[in-house]
């Protein structure tokens, strides 16, 4: 049975926090995902400028 008292709710939130938010093990994969998202965001943000600077082919 679940404990819906304030103490039980706080304990459940603390368990969730320790399991999913406060991850103890760090890896290169997490850092690379953050960097990839940053690069993608910047590219999408300045796509209009890149589009106008592209060399055109004359047919």
TrEMBL record:
One of its GO terms (biological process) is proton motive force-driven mitochondrial ATP synthesis. One of its GO terms (cellular component) is proton-transporting ATP synthase complex. GO terms for molecular function: proton-transporting ATP synthase activity, rotational mechanism. Keywords: Acetylation, ATP synthesis, CF(0), Hydrogen ion transport, Ion transport, Membrane, Mitochondrion, Mitochondrion inner membrane, Phosphoprotein, Transmembrane, Transmembrane helix, Transport. It is a single-pass membrane protein. Component of the ATP synthase complex composed at least of ATP5F1A/subunit alpha, ATP5F1B/subunit beta, ATP5MC1/subunit c (homooctomer), MT-ATP6/subunit a, MT-ATP8/subunit 8, ATP5ME/subunit e, ATP5MF/subunit f, ATP5MG/subunit g, ATP5MK/subunit k, ATP5MJ/subunit j, ATP5F1C/subunit gamma, ATP5F1D/subunit delta, ATP5F1E/subunit epsilon, ATP5PF/subunit F6, ATP5PB/subunit b, ATP5PD/subunit d, ATP5PO/subunit OSCP. This is ATP synthase F(0) complex subunit f, mitochondrial. It comes from Muntiacus reevesi.
